[in-house]
Amino acid sequence: MKPFKTGMTLSATIVFFYALCTLVWLALPESFMNFMNALFHGLDFRRLQTGQPFSWWSVTYPAFIFAVWFFAAGAFFAWLHNMLGKKD
C-alpha cells in the first residue's frame, strides 16, 4: 500500500460523505434527525441543535479537520500494513 495515496483516498472519502450528510441535513432536517436518532439507537440528536443560523464556516472547518485527521489515519494504516507485512 502507498501511504500517501491511501491517506488521500480515505480523506477524500470522509469529506465527500460529510458534505453529503450536510446536504441531506439542509434539505430534510426533520427526516435527517429521525434517521440519526434511529441509527444511534434512540440517542436524541435534537438536543445538539443550537438554533443558531447556518454558517458555511461551521461546515468547512470540521471538513478540514476531518480531511487532515483521516489523511493521517489512512497514511498510518498503509504504513503499518506495510510494516506488518514485511517478510524477515
How would you summarize the topology of this molecule?
Elements: H1 3-27, H2 29-39, H3 57-85
Architecture overview:
This protein is mostly helical. The chain has one domain. It has 3 helices and no strands. It has helices at 3-27, 29-39, 57-85. Helix 1 packs across helix 2 (29-39) and helix 1 runs antiparallel to helix 3 (57-85). The radius of gyration is 17 Å and the shape is elongated. It starts with a helix and ends with a helix.
What is the structure about, briefly put?
This protein is an all-alpha fold and 88 residues long.
For the termini, the CA-CA separation is: 18 Å
Count of separate structural domains: 1
* Total count of helical runs of at least 4 residues: 3
Total number of β-strand segments?
0
Largest sheet: none
Uncertain ranges: none
In percent, how helical is the residue content?
over 70%
Q: What structural class results from the helix and strand content?
A: mainly alpha
Shape: elongated
Q: What is the helix/strand order? A: HHH
Mean pLDDT: 92
Radius of gyration: 17 Å
Strand content: under 5%
What descriptive keywords fit this protein?
0% strand; single chain; 74% helix
